[in-house]
Amino acid sequence: MKAILLPTDFSNNSVNAIHYAMRMFKDDICEFYILNIQKASSFISDDMLVVPSTATLYNTLVGAAKKSIENLISNLKKEYKNNKHAFHSLVDYDNFVDSINQITEQHNIDLIVMGTHGASGLKKMLFGSNTVHVIKRCKVPVLVIPDNCKFRSLDSVGFTSSFKSKYSEADFKFLKALLIAHRSHLHVMHVIQADNGEMTLNQNVDFFKTHFDKVSINRIAEHTDSVYDGIHEFAETHRLKLIVMLSKTHSFLNRLFSEYRVETFAFKIDLPLLVLKQRDLDK
Length: 283
Prior knowledge:
283 residues
């Protein structure tokens, strides 16, 4: 059984991500936790001027959010009619990332699925700030779904890395189960950097060949501005349906969030991104 957290603000892109998750895990027994997080600024609204004196602002906002989630769950049950899926409604008033971390721990969440703007969305930004904070600070895998992206098969999945770190089988447990369930081919995209150690490179090639059945190793040369061109070209050529990265301090993923690189990446790759969490083996 999988426990999947679905944060939503009821926007089109967040609801689209929920539908993506329904289709992606249609054959899995899942507990879906649909979460709406209220923030302080929500209390400042013209609507609050007409709240009855017997009601508190807090109860009014939380009550409206709960009703919206219940309506969403009702629609999901009607559309998918999947008896393998169970739903839970959650409303919280807290800092966005703190709330997600608390609920992740409380309900033993395996995956967070979030919708965000893709290449056709915000200029100069790949993700909204909430998504970036969740990726960086949350302790479980995060699946980011670009706006308007619909689930297709996961027959072809790409994993990109600079191969600068040693890998552990535990880091890829979630990905391995996903690949087996969807009979996916894993394309490992090794981004070649000047400071790659040949020993580390060879160790990681052996790691993937040992732990994955349907896998190929591909090298992409990194130049100052062309690494994303290379990944984009590879993604199109091999018809990738999902890109996977491993999150670790000072990683390739963190470099992705620098302003120029994110802008470049956002306008070239409009695919779902799965960010795995890596244990720090250097400590």
